[in-house]
Amino acid sequence: MDGSDVTIIIPTLNEGGNIGKVIRDLKQLYNQAKIYVADDGSSDLTKVIAKKEGAIVIDRTNRKVKGITASVVEALQQATTEKIIVMDGDLQHPPEKVQEMIRALDNADMVIAVREKVIGPWGIFRRLESKAATELIKMRLRKNIHDPLSGFFGFRKKLLSNLNTEEFEMRCFKILFNILKNIDLQKTTLAYVYYDFDIRKNGESKLGTRQVYYFIKNLLT
Q1: What pLDDT, in 10s, does the model give residues 96-124?
Q2: Is residue 38 packed enough to be buried (19+ CB in 10 Å), middle (13-18) or exposed (0-12)?
Q3: Which of 207, 198, 203, 202 is nearest to 92 (CA)?
Q4: Rounded CA gap, 101 and 108, in Å?
Q5: How many CB atoms within 10 Å of residue 94?
Q6: How far apart are CA 160 and CA 156, in angstroms?
Q7: How far is 90 from 133, CA to CA, in rounded Å?
Q8: What element of type H or E holds 190?
Q9: Measuring CA to CA, which residue among 119, 126, 121, 101 is closest to residue 193?
Q10: pTM > 0.85: yes or no
């Protein structure tokens, strides 16, 4: 699979220790895919490495509104392919699963990569936090969506063609939730692929109080 009909969007912030390998692996597997790195103002070499490896880099350093949702939405405005894949740049999302996701989009409007198990230590607090947030989202959506917190998902561009992204909480780090909340789930065909979620190898998680605040705000509106 050469990926010629696919755009892969990777939102980043200080992923210099990971982004090079992510892009190299993707290019080896899908050499014709368009890879966009939407960088939120990294202070390390993320942008330099991404450009060197052949990605199209969107430098969001001077944007007033920061966040994963805002980064992905900006990249979407430049995407021309019908199939879109969103994934992290921290090596936690296996590039080889993108192939399954691309194929799933032949018959579905959206595909979600579901974390089947976690490789390595994942603290009990983090597990409970994730489970609680997942249940709250399911209640908010009134639909049993598997892993609605996933940062690894794909969709056909036409799914968002009539969607007003101004209704998104741009600072919320869970863009999948933003999308699910604003589409007609009854008319949307969903597919799932399953994978083992690896722990971060380099760099630090961006999850903090600010991100939690905007997630809760998005949940309540």
Answers
A1: 999 999 999 999 999 999 988 777 655 55
A2: buried
A3: 198
A4: 10
A5: 15
A6: 8
A7: 22
A8: strand 190-198
A9: 101
A10: yes
